[in-house]
Amino acid sequence: MQGFKEFLMRGNLVELAVAVIIGSVFSEVVKAFTAIIMDFIGFFGGQPDFSALAIGGVNIGVFINAVITFLITAAVVYFLVVTPYNKMRERFSKKKEEEEPAAPTSEDLLAEIRDLLRTRNI
Questions:
Q1: Region of residue 57 (left: phi > 0; alpha: psi -120 to 50; beta: else)
Q2: pLDDT tens, 65-79?
Q3: For the chain, what is the domain count?
Q4: pTM (2 decimals)?
Q5: What is the pLDDT of residues 77-100, one digit of tens each?
Q6: 61 in Cβ contact with 50 (< 8 Å)
Q7: Which domain holds residue 90?
Q8: CA pair distance 83, 86, nearest whole angstrom
Q9: Residues 8 and 55 in one domain
Q10: Do 115 and 58 reside in the same domain of the chain?
């Protein structure tokens, strides 16, 4: 029972649960935005519904609709989530680098040890 309790209290499990909940809610936002984009496309060129498109008796329209939806979803996620997140992370990492002094490299440490050993031998 102790192992199960530790499993439930592990930080990663809570983070994963939050990610799934936020992801499911964000999915609805992306679906709504995709519908808006499809309506704009329909406004200029007719409603883009390829579900009835068939070639040689094979219905490929559903696949075309899925590909268009995927491309719009990927664009929304990239431009509205990934790009702002990367910019924010870059900004915070620059601030962190400015605050923290640069750690000495191994070559610097070896040179310092060498110099200390020289002063002892003289």
A1: left
A2: 888 888 888 888 888
A3: 2
A4: 0.53
A5: 888 888 998 999 888 887 666 666
A6: yes
A7: 49-122
A8: 5
A9: no
A10: yes
